[in-house]
Amino acid sequence: MLNLLEEKALIARCVAFDDRRAFARLVDAYSPELRRFLRNLTGDADMADDLAQETFIKAYTGLRSFQGLARFRTWLFRIAYREFYSEMRSRHPMVDMENIPETSSTDAAEHTDNSHDIEAALKVLPPVERTLVLLFYMEDRPLKDIVAITGLPSGTVKSYLSRARGRLGAYFAREEERASVVSQS
Description:
By secondary structure, the chain is mostly helical. Helices cover about 75% and strands about 0% of the residues. It has helices at about 5-15, 20-40, 45-60, 70-90, 105-110, 120, 125-140, 145-150, 155-185. Helix 4 crosses helix 8 and helix 7 (about 125-140) packs across helix 9 (about 155-185). The protein is elongated and about 70 Å long.
């Protein structure tokens, strides 16, 4: 990862001189974690790659509007977050993203052969909660960055994270119970 000074210097070169090599360094620095975030969010590597590509294109074309109030990485994740939700709305135009039905735990368990897989557990969460869990626990982002990325108030983020922890705990308890029933048979 780039330090703040390197990041600002690269951004300045991109804006002032349209230096594509400088932007390529930004892409190289932030692409792995952005792709991981999108992969965990979508559950689809191809879709994650497409969304990451769209994110970097939008970041490049909108770089002059970057004000530097947050780190470039936070701004990039905000763009990725918006791209993901834009894609979901285009696939499900009549559905509010906070009210998308959860994947049933049996579907998720079948997908992973009844293992305690984090990916399957994340699928039981509604998209907003899944996004927050990924940012907070898997990407290790501080609360202030999550607020900047999602645009949600701090209290709402905390509430959703608490609700998500409860759902994940219930999911793992069901899976453990299911595994013990199977082993007793």
